[in-house]
Amino acid sequence: MQKKEKIVNPEYLTCPIRNVLAKFGDKWSLLVLYHLYVAENGVMRFNELRRNMTDCSQKMLSQTLKNLESNNLVNRKLYPEVPPRVEYSLTDIGKSLMPSLDGLIKWAKENFNNVVTA
């Protein structure tokens, strides 16, 4: 028996919301972006992020940072020292996202009880 091939609506493939959110719409990416945004000098090292996100495993944080870097939202700067020092910061594109993320955070705070306890 031959498996039926699922036909994907072409509009889904070009939908900006679907395609953009697929790049960083997971909870860890949004939290990393937020922590970099509110960091004192806009720069954080891996272990600083890890301390702020204790429920995120080291492996998941590493994967998330790589994903955000590959999607041009986060800069990774490696200093040639021993031991090596790596710092993360938002790119200009990442910074341009933050007003929208701020709006989402504000909305989440205002509607937390209605959404989370529903």
Automatic annotation (TrEMBL):
<dbReference type="InterPro" id="IPR036388">
    <property type="entry name" value="WH-like_DNA-bd_sf"/>
</dbReference>
<keyword id="KW-0238">DNA-binding</keyword>
<keyword id="KW-0804">Transcription</keyword>
<protein>
    <submittedName>
        <fullName>Transcriptional regulator</fullName>
    </submittedName>
</protein>
<feature type="domain" description="HTH hxlR-type">
    <location>
        <begin position="15"/>
        <end position="116"/>
    </location>
</feature>
<keyword id="KW-0805">Transcription regulation</keyword>
<dbReference type="InterPro" id="IPR002577">
    <property type="entry name" value="HTH_HxlR"/>
</dbReference>
<dbReference type="InterPro" id="IPR036390">
    <property type="entry name" value="WH_DNA-bd_sf"/>
</dbReference>
<dbReference type="Pfam" id="PF01638">
    <property type="entry name" value="HxlR"/>
</dbReference>
